[in-house]
Design a protein that fits this description.
heterodimer, A: mainly beta, 4-stranded antiparallel beta sheet, B: 109 residues, 5-stranded antiparallel beta sheet, globular
């Protein structure tokens, strides 16, 4: 089975530009999570969805960040406008169930904002 | 929220040595996972272990939920074991996975 697929793997762009990160969860999983990893803050949850509905977005840092899940097989995380402090590795994960099943992570998108 | 601590923060091992990594958490949890982040940044799922003991090859893990800790054992370490090991916990009432700060492991030949 294919794992969680993220694209792009790397993104380098100038500040002020819009950035869109994409994620395809494992088929059949009903939970999807977006995480950010930085040296200063480690791995932190940004937002998660259940059956395509956002459940908790309290980790989204600012209004510049938005996430959508238009269907069970696709999600996007958008940053507009981007800033240098948004540079990080962004991970998407999915699971079948929330508390009694493991989360499976994609390979991440390494984002650099110049 | 739940606090997650990992020890040691850094570890250097000679190839072939054994090690034990520890994860302490401040409240009861419903879910605990161990991950290995390899030098390429990939997060590899090692164990889903909210309680009990599991083994997978040279790796094993034990979670004592009542005492709020989990241990990851690495035996006969190899250079490919290098990377950062994270534990992550979830408590249903909080509905968020909280990652520990990680243990950075370097295995030298």
């Amino acid at each position: 089975d294919a794992g969680v697929i993220q694209s792009p793997r790397h993104e380098v762009t100038e500040m002020g530009q819009e950035v869109t990160l994409r994620c395809k969860p494992i088929s059949g999983h009903d939970y999807l999570f977006w995480y950010r990893q930085t040296m200063m803050r480690g791995l932190e949850l940004l937002i998660y969805f259940n059956n395509n509905v956002p459940i908790d977005d309290s980790g989204m840092p600012e209004d510049r960040f938005s996430a959508k899940m238009p269907n069970a097989s696709f999600s996007t995380l958008k940053i507009q406008p981007s800033e240098p402090r948004d540079s990080a590795v962004y991970f998407c994960a999915s699971s079948w169930g929330l508390s009694n099943q493991p989360q499976h992570f994609g390979d991440g998108t390494r984002l650099s904002i110049l | 929220g739940i606090q997650v601590e990992q020890s040691p923060p850094d570890l250097i091992l000679q190839e072939g040595a054994n090690s034990t990594l520890r994860c302490n958490f401040s409240d009861s949890v419903n879910n605990l996972q161990w991950f290995h982040q390899n030098p390429w940044g990939q997060l590899i799922n090692l164990f889903y272990i909210p309680s009990g003991t599991k083994q997978n090859g040279r790796l094993s893990a034990t979670t004592v939920a009542t005492e709020r800790y989990s241990l990851l054992y690495i035996s006969s370490s190899q250079t490919t074991d290098s990377g950062v090991y994270f534990c992550a916990v979830l408590k249903t009432s909080y509905d968020k996975v909280i990652f520990g700060p990680g243990t950075s492991l370097s295995v030298i030949p």
